[in-house]
Amino acid sequence: MRPLIGTGLKMNLTSSEAAAYFDALRPLVAPLTSCELFVLPPFTSVWVARDRLRDSNVAWGAQDVHPQDAGAHTGDVSASMLADLGCTFVEVGHSERRRDHGESDQLVAQKVHQVLRHHMTPIMCVGEPSPGSSEAALDHVLGQARAGMSMVPEQDRARVVIAYEPVWAIGEGAVAADPKFIGRVHRGLKELGARVIYGGSVDHVTAGPILAQAAVEGLFVGRAALDPKGFAAIAQLTSL
Ligand code: PEP
């Protein structure tokens, strides 16, 4: 399977800025056949992604979803709304949502289930809060991942993407985890039968050694992909 290289744009880019981003990214990655690509803009720009990335090699999706089909949930967005806009990936349980919105493993499980029910791919984020041994990290994330996949039948496990994102390795001022450490955690997570990608301070320097780990099946990029050239540079490493 080709590596999966994606980005979540978090709460960045207006719709106009997102249009410019997609227009810049599209030709940069057009020649690439060595990886699968996806972009998760804010909800307000999902329709822009649909318009600007249609018939390209970049899939799009969203950063969250409500677990119910429809109804009295002010401000929320349903899976069918996302599927209708051509989304094929939906991020679930990012540590910032767990932190800012108190999302529990149980809610994450419901969202994963809902995304699969609507024939999209959940990107389910897990990560330990602070640095420690790879055994301790694996113990923590296996607990989160097992809980998050508790509503996924055995035969659907391969449809889930687990994004291993150590919380301490994410965001401004952080550095990516050591590639060998990542490799050990991924090997353990692989027992769940999902695809496992890594996120946390990935850039064009750290990406190569991380991708070289056998159990790393892709990358989930934050800051370094806010510039389309940065995202493309990381994706291009998969063709070397
Ligand atoms: C993230 O938060 O999912 C992420 C990967 O961020 P960054 O690359 O900026 O650490």
How would you describe this structure to a colleague?
There is one protein chain. With 240 residues, this protein is of the alpha/beta class. The chain is 37% helix and 16% strand. It contains 9 helices and 8 strands. Strands 1-2-3-4-5-6-7-8 form an 8-stranded parallel β-barrel, surrounded by 5 helices. Helix 1 (15-29) runs parallel beside helix 2 (46-53), helix 1 runs parallel beside helix 9 and helix 6 runs parallel beside helix 7 (179-189). The radius of gyration is 16 Å and the shape is globular. The mean pLDDT is 98.
Features:
37% helix, 240 residues, binds phosphoenolpyruvate, 16% strand, eight-stranded parallel β-barrel
Query: What's the gyration radius in Å?
Result: 16 Å
Q: Averaging pLDDT over every residue, what do you get?
A: 98
What is the spatial order of strands in the main beta sheet? Answer: 1-2-3-4-5-6-7-8
Output the structural class.
alpha/beta
Unreliable residue stretches: none
Q: What is the total tally of β strands?
A: 8
What's the N-to-C terminus distance?
16 Å
The DSSP helix count reads: 9
Shape: globular
The small-molecule ligands in this entry are: phosphoenolpyruvate
Q: Could you tell me the strand content as a percent range?
A: 15-25%
Share of helical residues: 25-40%
Main sheet: strands, sense, barrel: 8 strands, parallel, barrel
* SSE arrangement, N to C: EHEHEHEHHEHEHEHEH
